[in-house]
Specification:
The complex is a heterodimer of chains A (222) and B (674). Chain A is mainly alpha-helical. Chain A has 7 helices and no strands. Chain A has one domain. With 674 residues, chain B is mainly alpha-helical. Among the domains of chain B are: 245 residues, no CATH class; 47 residues, no CATH class. Chain B is built from 27 helices and 6 strands. A two-stranded antiparallel ribbon of chain B has the order 1-2. A two-stranded antiparallel ribbon of chain B has the order 3-4. Classes of the chains: A mainly alpha (222), B mainly alpha (674). The interface between A and B is medium-sized, with 20 and 16 residues.
Chain lengths: 222, 674
């Protein structure tokens, strides 16, 4: 494959990262929960593809493994769990938001700029073909975090948490071509468990308050 | 010595685990006591070895945590405290065999026994620790185990309150101790006590003063100096009595240990005169106010707790005097003051523990702590009465008991202040002596009350009427301490050379030979010309005088004619209502010091409708103003509550808000990192 020069490789990785970021914005803008889950699955798929690309370009086989796990856990298992939770709870939409969609999108734009601004000084030190992705990874983490604050339903918060995790995975791939396999495995296991626990927690919340609105939790205060 | 240490540690560890086995409560209690007895016996041996050993014994186990090593150093000072802890611990463990029986079925004897061993172990480790980090860990362990022991009877609301109060106070104190250690750490770069002693850069003068004041507040909270004493009268009575004995007898002495360690070891015994003066003033005030409030207490255990405040004050008088002499370079007098302070430390440990065990026996027999419900117990509980009397005589500092010897030494060291060049100190030290004299007299009054009201006359309640002598194990525990009290009083010539080894390492001067006159039969404060005391001779004279009196009575026919009638009966039928009450007994003192007590007396009389000359019912109410709680603690607590109310806004209980806090912090930190 002579056409795949390092330059084109870098461009492709950047493209993959950009798609990830794009889906992030889509999740922020999306009100329907099931669509959010689909978007998350899509984002995870992009992540897996980007990771596989990096694995191919650098010839590091264990990233293939991580990519495969991403597909299995984040594209197949977790979305299915989430869909089931949504079905059982009968909540389809994020009705009331702490911050509305246009404002959220603007803030997310600012966050992307902040991420690029922060990573600017360390970019030149990198010599990997993935170095530009670091800023995007940080942006995804920040956007995920922000979504957790801006949305009220527990399901959305769980998705936002998983988005953050995706950002971290991208960051690890970008900065060091992935973490050691054992760490990667541990992280996947953690995410899976976290998703399951949050699913149960959401059900509990529904039972206790007849709603999955986490602002209701403040009623637990004295 | 290492073997002894291992035996000690192992038996405490076993003592912490063994009672937790699912046995009968009786077996659990016995297991805890037996382990503690083995451990304390090895502790006594370890203390004696350490006191006589020429060199400090050290050992250490490294740990993976940075700055922390489990370093142990048994020098003379540590040995003295190991000995004190173990002696009281032994008595308490023997006593516990019988005492915990009345807890059966009410509270967990397993937890009590396990924490009891843990408490003793942590105190031993506090004095053995040779690493600041290690010290703080075991210090905290000591506070926590004692907290759990205080709340043994946690089904009672006042016990829970006492425990909570204690927990807060002890943590405030620990915070100050951590501050002191951090200052030393900053200068030496290590938490090892060796590095504290010889830091790379000596502390600047201002920081030294700060370290001293922080240590004084930190350890003072544990010791119970005025005005940090308020937790003592709550926590000590709330605990089971053998625990009160340990807390009052030994645990508050750990603070004395810490203070001496910081002042004479880490700071090298070099300080300006006003440090010692501060300690002296605090000591005088604590001694006086402690006994003043003790007088007004009718709960026997609270009374004893206030006496702990008093005696810590007396100990600090000796140490403060020693510090003043030290700062003027009068090494021999400094050693005298410290010997006196340490002598009183071990004495107080013994007689206070004895009195608390005695109070526990009364509680065991009568199920009440209120003195107004005692009375006539000497006839029903002769052994307890005898032991309590020995303790009472000792704490009231009557010759020839141990309390007398140590208070006499403290008096002497205060009188010898005329050798100090500074005029103000010359004037102030006799004043402190006057305070001590007042304290001693009030203490005598207080124990005349405590013993008289509890043991003499007629029983004031059915509880007291049906009291029976306590089991042999409790008597044995008390008898052991009573014997030590008598020994410490009669044999200062054995004790002083041992104490001298402790103070010699602190002041660099040995004064044992100068203090023992007439082949050791008399005790002199450094120079014989000034004054001297021979307690064996004094004891002989006193006992002889009493015997002579009896002989004379017998000779002149006193025993021949016998008449049986009620004492002071005057033909009336005596009833308990005619007796002096505890409140009545201290009425004159209450009048004299009404400025301090600010008493509230309320007398309501309900008169008969037919005639205004006859009262149908009378209600008498009397209480004294808790000055420190009202004017010092309440404002502070109120301020904390106000602040907490403001901070409540931050704690909105909203998940999103908490996430937002984290998010903003993250972004701000990232931006700052640039």
């Amino acid at each position: 494959m002579s056409w795949l020069t390092p330059h084109i490789g870098t461009q492709l990785v950047d493209l993959g990262s950009a798609l990830l970021l794009l889906t992030c914005f889509a999740i922020v803008a999306q009100r329907r929960l099931s669509a959010c889950v689909d978007l998350f699955a899509l984002q995870s798929l992009f992540l897996a593809m980007t990771a596989a690309l990096v694995a191919f370009l650098t010839g590091t086989p264990h990233i293939y493994f991580a990519a495969a796990l991403t597909v299995l856990v984040k594209v197949l298992v977790i979305p299915r769990v989430l869909k089931r939770v949504i079905e059982r709870l009968n909540v389809t939409r994020e009705l009331v938001m702490n911050i509305n969609v246009p404002a959220s999108l603007l803030i997310c734009g600012v966050l992307v700029m902040v991420a690029f601004f922060i990573t600017q000084p360390i970019m030149p030190f990198g010599h990997l073909l993935t170095r530009d992705s670091l800023a995007i990874a940080l942006a995804i983490v920040l956007i995920g975090f922000f979504t957790m604050i801006a949305r009220q339903k527990a399901v959305t918060q769980l998705i936002a948490f998983l988005v953050m995790e995706n950002g971290l995975f991208l960051g690890a791939t970008a900065a060091t071509y992935g973490m050691p396999l054992i760490v990667e495995l541990g992280v996947f296991f953690d995410v899976l468990v976290a998703a399951l626990i949050a699913g149960i927690y959401t059900n509990r919340l529904q039972d206790a308050f007849d709603s999955v609105d986490t602002t209701r939790l403040s009623e637990l205060k004295e | 010595m290492l073997n002894l240490l291992w035996v000690l540690l192992a038996s405490y560890a076993v003592g912490m685990l063994l009672p937790l086995c699912p046995w009968q409560p009786k077996t659990q209690g016995l297991a805890a006591s037996v382990c503690a007895i083995v451990a304390t016996c090895s502790g006594i041996a370890l203390g004696l070895f350490g006191l006589t050993a020429p060199e400090p014994f050290t050992t250490s186990i490294a740990s993976t945590i940075p700055l922390l090593t489990f370093a142990i150093r048994l020098d003379a000072l540590a040995s003295f405290f190991v000995l004190t802890i173990s002696l009281v611990g032994l008595a308490a463990s023997i006593y516990a065999i019988g005492y915990v029986r009345h807890f059966h079925g009410r509270v967990s004897v397993a937890a009590l026994g396990s924490f009891f061993n843990g408490f003793l172990l942590s105190m031993i480790l506090v004095v053995l620790a040779d690493n600041g980090f290690f010290f703080l860990i075991v210090w905290e362990l000591m506070s926590l185990t004692s907290y759990f022991l205080v709340v043994t009877e946690h089904e009672k609301a006042d016990v829970r309150y006492a425990g909570f109060f204690y927990l807060i106070m002890t943590h405030v104190g620990t915070a100050f101790i951590i501050l002191t250690f951090l200052l030393f750490f900053q200068q030496s770069g290590s938490f090892s006590f060796e590095a504290f002693r010889h830091p790379e850069h000596p502390l600047p003068e201002g920081l030294r003063t700060f370290a001293f004041l922080a240590a004084l507040v930190g350890f003072g909270t544990k010791a119970g100096i005025v005005p940090l004493h308020v937790w003592l009268p709550y926590a000590h009575p709330a605990a089971p009595s053998h625990i009160s004995a340990l807390m009052s007898g030994v645990m508050i002495k750990m603070a004395i240990y810490g203070l001496l360690r910081v002042l004479f070891d880490f700071l090298g015994g070099e300080f300006p005169w006003w440090w010692g003066f501060t300690v002296l003033v605090i000591g005088a005030v604590s001694a006086w106010l402690g006994v003043m409030y003790a007088l007004m207490e009718h709960d026997l255990k609270s009374l004893l707790a206030y006496h702990s405040v008093e005696n810590i004050g007396i100990i600090l008088l000796g140490i403060g005097a020693g510090m003043i002499f030290q700062s003027y370079g009068l090494q021999e007098l400094a050693a005298l003051g410290l010997v006196a302070g340490l002598y009183h430390t071990i004495n107080h440990a013994m007689f206070k523990a004895l009195l608390f065990l005695g109070a526990g026996s009364l509680l065991y027999a009568t199920h009440t702590r209120n003195m107004e419900e005692y009375g006539g117990l000497l006839r029903r509980m002769p052994w307890t009465g005898l032991f309590f009397l020995i303790g009472a005589v000792s704490i009231a500092a009557l010759p020839p008991t141990n309390g007398f010897v140590s208070e006499w030494l403290i008096f002497q060291s205060l009188f010898l202040s005329f050798q100090v060049p500074s005029l103000i100190v010359k004037l102030m030290l006799p004043l402190a002596a006057a305070m001590l004299a007042l304290t001693a007299v009030l203490a005598l009054a207080c124990f005349a009350k405590a013993f008289g009201i509890s043991f003499l006359a007629l029983p004031r309640s059915s509880h007291a009427r049906h009291a029976e002598e306590v089991p042999w194990s409790m008597r044995l525990g008390m008898g052991f301490l009573a014997a030590i009290c008598v020994f410490l009083g009669l044999a200062p010539m054995v004790v002083v050379p041992l104490l001298d080894r402790v103070t010699a390492s602190m002041t660099g001067t040995s004064i044992a030979e100068k203090m023992l006159a007439l082949d050791g039969w008399a005790l002199a404060p450094v120079n014989v010309e000034f004054s001297s005391l021979s307690s064996p001779v004094l004891a002989f004279v006193l006992v002889g005088a009493a015997a002579l009196g009896l002989v004379l009575v017998a000779l002149f026919g006193g025993f021949r004619a016998k008449r049986y009638s009620k004492t002071w009966g005057c033909g009336l039928t005596l009833s308990p209502r005619m007796e002096y009450t505890a409140t009545g007994f201290v009425q004159p003192i209450k009048r004299v010091f009404s400025t301090i007590y600010q008493p509230t007396v309320k007398l309501e009389t309900e008169l008969l409708e037919e005639s205004r000359y006859f009262a149908k019912r009378r209600r008498f109410e009397f209480h004294i103003e808790p000055l420190f709680e009202k004017y010092l603690y309440k404002p502070v607590v109120a301020a904390v509550y106000r602040l907490a109310d403001r901070l409540r806004i931050v704690q909105a209980g909203s998940l999103h808000l908490y996430l937002a806090y984290m998010f903003v912090t993250l972004v701000v930190l990232l931006l700052f990192a640039l």
